[in-house]
Amino acid sequence: MSATITRPAPDRTLRLGISRAGYEIRSYFRQGDTVFFTFLFPLLMLTIFSVAFSDSDFGQTPDGDPVTAAQYYLPAMLAAGVLLSGLQNMAIDIAVEKGDGTLKRLAGSPLSPVSYFIGKIGQVLVTAVLQAALLITVALVVFGVPLPTEPERWLTFAWVFLLGVTTCSILGIGLSGVPRSGKSASAVIIPIVLVLQFISGVYIQFSALPEWLQNVANLFPLAWLAHGMRAVFLPESYSALEQGGEWNLAGIAIACGIWLVVGLIATRATFRWIRKDG
Fold this sequence. Notes:
Elements: H1 10-28, H2 32-52, H3 69-99, H4 102-107, H5 113-141, H6 151-175, H7 185-199, H8 211-217, H9 221-233, H10 249-270
């Protein structure tokens, strides 16, 4: 008699995933260091840049009002927040769970890998939305940043944000297989994330970077996410400073779509409940 392999029903997989997401969110906010370096760090950097460069010239709006440092850096910090919440937090968290035996224990539970991923991505989505809302609120209330009034700009923000969260989360899962152990995860992942931020127009004005470095940055999703956020929150005239002299929204969808597929392939090839060297 041949053995029958039973697979979890889709509705059960989804229920377990949503339940896992609730657990992941609670666990996330109980970790002070994680909350600071992934949730509050972009807010801290926005505050520092807004104060430090308050007298700098970032151009003017169509109405003749100056573009403040807070308005200029808000898009960059929103993009960085997506990267930190998705790729960095996800990669380190899963690598640690591989190392401390959490995934080994989950392998013997009713939780499937798909439910586990739903829980992780759900946690990233919720925390990223809260982080973005906090950044935008502080920018508006504390620094007086004018927000877009055109519905199409907010629609652009929504799909760029959701695509960015999904792409970075999947890439984080794939990247979690790179560290040799949970203890080395931060040392491996954080430098990668930090370099991407410096070359992608987060801390340094993207148009001020050498063209060859801009081309390198455009090979990765963060530069495109920052580009999309600038298209939402900066005046239309700023498009002249971008490569090609316009907001390339199609390029964002293509670049992030490619990296999403790369992340899915990497996840399928590398993710295991138990490490091979364990």
